[in-house]
Amino acid sequence: MTERIRPVTDILNDPLRNKGTAFTEDERRKLHLEGLLPSGIDTLDKQIDRVLGHLESKPSDLERYIYLMGLCDRNETLFYATLMSDPARFVPIVYDPTIADACLSYGHLYRRPRGMYLTRHMKGRFRKVLSNWPIKDVRAICVSSGGRILGLGDIGANGAPIPIGKLQLYTACAAVPPDGLLPIHMDIGTSNAALRADALYTGLREEPASSDEIDAVMDEFVAAVQSVFPGCCIHFEDWKGDDAIRLLARYQDKALCFNDDIQGTASVALAGLITALQIVGSTLGEQRILFAGAGSAAIGIADLLVETMVQEGLSRQAARERIALFDINGLVEKRRRDLNPSQARYAHDGAPTRELADAVRQTKPSILIGVSTVHGLFTEQVVKTMAKMHERPIIFPLSNPTDKAECTPQQAYAWTQGKALVACGVQFPDVEVDGKTFHPGQANNFYIFPAVALAIYATRPKRIDDTAFIAAARGTADQVSAADRDKGMLYPQQKNILATEITTATRVAEYIFDQGQATVERPEDIRAWIEAMTYKPVYAGA
Ligand code: NAI
């Protein structure tokens, strides 16, 4: 066997220290890299240009995703410098929607591990297994079972890219330092028989664990995280609906944790509503809100709206009375016998109806939120009925992807002569109505969870509660300029995302300090303090 004289290439194979062609002459001499790299020396900017050229030549976003993940494995600084040069352009490539394709073929695309892969069978040993992670100061873990990924349902171990992508967005959008972030796939089995039969599937070929087993596994996992990585925040992502709700309720008061699908989603919807109400010049407590859909998204948003109205001074009961639900079986009213407890809280007196337009006439909503997954549910009649009752109806067809949206922004603006205030679950193109250009908002969770993560990173709180997500929503909404609001924009511009997230993080950090939850001393200037600890994608000296 050939004996290696010196592990000269170690630094070139270490994504955290590798600079590729940007190693200076001095560094090359000092690190014994002379002759191991092309002689031309590049700046980071030039390297980014080369990366952009490579991306340009790729035939699809999935190929761009694969290329960027390879880059992250080779040179993390260059990877983040590229992403942070234009997050709005790269988020759809490293995350939604492209990541859905990456997940579908994960076992086939697999090249090398990233983060950790735990299974239910490691119960009893989680502490020991977590100790295998080489970095000790882990500040945030994103953990997914792959039980309900985007619109793909249960894809088990093929969901592994999700926590990876979510944490990459912490850094790309809010400059959370990447070295303390740990993505974990928790394999609890999958109900997806086709995947279990796929020869290249990388996970357990087992039916999913029962709720009791999941709870037992996660009890030990959460305790192990607290012991191996003290102060680490656990972000639950893309667990099956009831697992997600149950796990958040189980640990919210016992560990530093949050669930983006529940709390981040509700917060971003609230942010859009706050902006819309700033335009209308009214408060949430003065509105009537109708949800089309009474599933997990509707309940999550409704519950956060109630907390917000309670903050405004309404009683919890009065706040709930301002919210009505309409689902596949019609208006949620007191006589319905098919409601679960979280839906029953929003059941009021009312005449049974299966017609949404009828429900609109009955409940007279000023805000209509679509989380039904039913394309076309917001008909011309529904929207016009609202517009007859309210000068500026607020209409959020949030179902996604695009072919599930309850109506298009074009329709909502056209049916209301441009009066509607609209936000959608996906980014629709600008719309022109009567010579005026409207820019429909996108209720994208990326406005919220990276900022919350940055605030948690800075303040190291003991716990994070739902109200922190109200602070994040208010912080986001307050950054939409008057000129942008005039164009119908309900969210801040995506091109300034880093500055936006730092401002939102500052608001969340203020809240955490005010609540006495921080474990670090409150600085004089919270924003400057947070900004100073953000990650800068530049090469360190040799
Ligand atoms: P879910 O499956 O839990 O709930 C769907 C609900 O729609 C159920 O209550 C069902 O009864 C109702 N429904 C079905 N057909 C209906 C009909 N014809 N009329 C009225 N209601 C009907 O789904 P989940 O998780 O609540 O998500 C719903 C949608 O919201 C998805 O498309 C999701 O992508 C979207 N969403 C968007 C978010 C965003 O924009 N940030 C965040 C979260 C969800």
From TrEMBL:
Its cofactor is Mn(2+). Keywords: Metal-binding, Oxidoreductase. The keyword Oxidoreductase applies. Residues 72-252 form the Malic enzyme N-terminal domain. PROSITE patterns: MALIC_ENZYMES. Pfam families: malic (PF00390), Malic_M (PF03949). SMART domains: malic (SM01274), Malic_M (SM00919). SUPFAM superfamilies: Aminoacid dehydrogenase-like, N-terminal domain, NAD(P)-binding Rossmann-fold domains. Residues 262-513 form the Malic enzyme NAD-binding domain. Belongs to the malic enzymes family. PANTHER family: MALIC ENZYME-RELATED. This is NAD-dependent malic enzyme. It comes from Robbsia betulipollinis. The lineage of its organism: Bacteria, Pseudomonadati, Pseudomonadota, Betaproteobacteria, Burkholderiales.
